[in-house]
């Protein structure tokens, strides 16, 4: 088959999976893209992958952002042309993002990159069954009657002890205004499709702040630190709102009876 000069033929086994991942990530680094593609068996050769990315950038399907981050690579997002193409392939919420132009653009970008690390950490465990990204959650919430009560950062399903365990994931990189947590609490209390809620934070102070705001929530909400999750993943020590005891995330998800004390992680804060 012949193509018009300057056009591009997209591969269903390599290009579309890559564009789909960037679409759902929002922003993503070069190495994060490669890790996702390698773990999903869409890429093995780093050189071939690099050439593919350059080709997609050249044809205006990926946007390369040159940003002055310390120890950060170039960051990518999808273009309007790419989002339009993916929408035609049935992708939910397929639209480009321009948050870098907004006042909180840098915060959104860092949030996306950290969320990618959380997603990759789960994929490396081999226990991840499904990761529903915020793009799909928003589409379901806005366009159907079968959505969730909140725009979660992700809804995750992992397989533990032979059972599929589902939880809503929120990564709180920066605090919201205190009054906004009342609405968050109300939405979590109204949720009927999810039994477990996990909040990850980058530091103790923010963890204490969010846990305090949700301490009276009638649903069980668990809190943990990002750095510990990236190291321990499902063995992460978490603490439930209103409880002084820490247990592992695995125990929470599997309704484990054994309470595992992890005092050193929480001894410096009181919720």
Main features:
single chain, 271 residues, alpha+beta, Arc Repressor Mutant, subunit A, 2 domains, seven-stranded mixed β-sheet, three-stranded antiparallel β-sheet, 11 helices, disordered N terminus, disordered C terminus
Describe this structure in words.
The radius of gyration is 20 Å and the shape is globular. The chain has two domains: 1-97, Arc Repressor Mutant, subunit A, CATH 1.10.10.10; 103-271, no CATH class. Helix 2 runs parallel beside helix 5. A hairpin with a 5-residue loop joins strand 9 (237-240) and strand 10 (246-248). It has helices at residues 15-25, 30-39, 46-58, 80-88, 105-125, 134-143, 180-190, 204-213, 226-232, 249-253, 263-266, and strands at 28-29, 62-65, 75-78, 128-133, 154-160, 163-171, 196-201, 221-225, 237-240, 246-248. The protein has 271 residues and is α+β, with helices and mostly antiparallel strands. The strands form two sheets. The protein has a seven-stranded mixed sheet.
